[in-house]
Write a structure and sequence with these properties.
It is a single chain. The protein has helices at 11-34, 47-60, 62-69, 72-76, 116-119, 122-130, 153-161, 189-192, 221-234, 248-255, 267-276, and strands spanning 90-94, 103-109, 133-138, 141-146, 178-181, 198-201, 215-217. The chain has 294 residues and is an alpha/beta fold. The protein folds into two domains: 11-146, no CATH class; 153-276, no CATH class. Strands 1-2-4-3 form a four-stranded antiparallel β-sheet. It has a three-stranded parallel β-sheet with strand order 5-6-7. Strand 3 (133-138) and strand 4 form a beta hairpin. The radius of gyration is 21 Å and the shape is globular. It starts with 10 loop residues before the first helix and ends in an 18-residue tail after the last helix.
């Protein structure tokens, strides 16, 4: 299996993780009240919401603020603080329909990678690692998962079991897949190690991209991702509706815009799409905003 001991934290681990995550949010806000250089290190989506929180924290005091305003329930509620993106400060990513409730990971939003070690000290990280958990620093957040789980876990699982869910029984092929990530140097790196799978880098800094002919740089994080997907859709023939059976001919037609003569993803065609897209512009059309830079 992709992860022999399972992919989800245990119930005990999950409870402890939520406690740690809520404590980190409190610690960060108290530090930001004393250090006005902290908030600017985060993505702009955090600036206004965090400024409002700091105003209330300063006005009401620590005890009243955390017991009446930014309670544990508020930290866990999507949209309560980060209303524009409907994110939760402590995002417990549960498995749909799981009984009892299981979670794949816990993400602490609003902890900048540049200041990660000030809050997740080496001692705390070691304690979590010893408990069978892995801590991953991302540009604007910290993700905590079961040890052995990374961005490529699903890819490895598909390589092992994808044929079970194929209409034709054919094995899953990396040559029919494209991966995306805005942090290829760290958390998204596992997705870059498959030379047969194209990887679209959304990293703002091209120098962070690993070497490899399958790496295509787009950059600009969420905006770059949305514009690239729009460009891909615009260059793709009509996509079949869900009610239509997907015949080999239809599938080949769908891939035509970015596949080679053998039906595999053409890195050269994907690279051409990246080069022709107005990656820095605000996306238009029906492509939803992504959470690539959480």
């Amino acid at each position: 299996e992709a992860v022999p001991d399972g992919t989800c934290p245990t119930a005990q681990q999950l409870g402890d993780l939520i406690d740690v995550a809520c404590t980190m949010i409190k610690t960060f806000l108290l530090a930001a009240l004393r250090d006005d250089t902290l908030i600017p290190t985060l993505s702009k989506k955090y600036h206004a919401p965090y400024a409002r929180l700091l105003e209330q924290l300063e006005a009401r005091g620590e005890e009243a603020f955390f017991s009446e305003v930014l309670t544990r329930d508020v930290m866990l509620k999507h949209g309560a603080v980060l209303s524009e993106t409907n994110d939760a400060l402590v995002d417990v990513q549960t498995i749909p329909h799981s009984d009892p409730v299981a979670a794949a990971q816990v993400t602490v939003l609003g902890i900048p990678m540049k200041r990660f070690h000030e809050f997740f000290t080496p001692e705390l990280v070691e304690t979590l690692e010893d408990a069978g958990l892995h801590v991953k620093s991302q540009p604007n957040s910290v993700c905590i998962v079961r040890s052995g789980v990374d961005k490529a876990t699903f890819v490895r699982w598909m390589c092992l079991h994808g044929h079970r869910y194929s209409a034709t029984g054919a094995p899953f092929s990396l040559r029919h897949a494209i991966a995306f990530g805005d942090n290829p140097a760290v958390v998204d790196r596992p997705l870059t190690i498959f030379p047969d799978m194209a990887f679209v880098s959304l990293a703002p800094d091209r120098t962070k991209d690993p070497e490899g002919s399958h790496i295509i740089h787009v950059g600009n994080e969420e905006v770059g991702c949305a514009n690239f997907l729009r460009q891909m859709i615009d260059h793709t023939p009509t996509v079949p509706t869900n009610s239509e059976p997907v015949s080999p001919a239809t599938e080949r037609s769908w891939w035509e815009g970015f596949a080679d003569d053998n039906g595999n993803v053409s890195v050269d065609k994907v690279r051409q799409l990246a080069a022709t897209a107005d990656i820095g512009a605000t996306p238009t059309g029906a492509v939803p905003a992504t959470k690539a830079a959480a």
